[in-house]
Design a protein that fits this description.
By secondary structure, this protein is mainly α. About 0% of the residues are buried. It contains 1 helix and no strands. The model has no long low-confidence stretch (mean pLDDT about 80).
Amino acid sequence: MTKIVKLASLSAAALIGATLIGGCTDQTARDQAQAAMDAAKGAQACCDTNTERMNAMYQKTMRK
């Protein structure tokens, strides 16, 4: 009887542990995806700023 209880306890602990690890992995993946999205948005903002600057220089050159 005690072996069955121990086995059930270990099985429950393994199931809970796997669920927690799975949840942690999902959160880690979400965090990494969010960090990548933030980096991409930052790069796009930089590109937009450079494009605006280049357009302004072009317009200035064309007016002369």
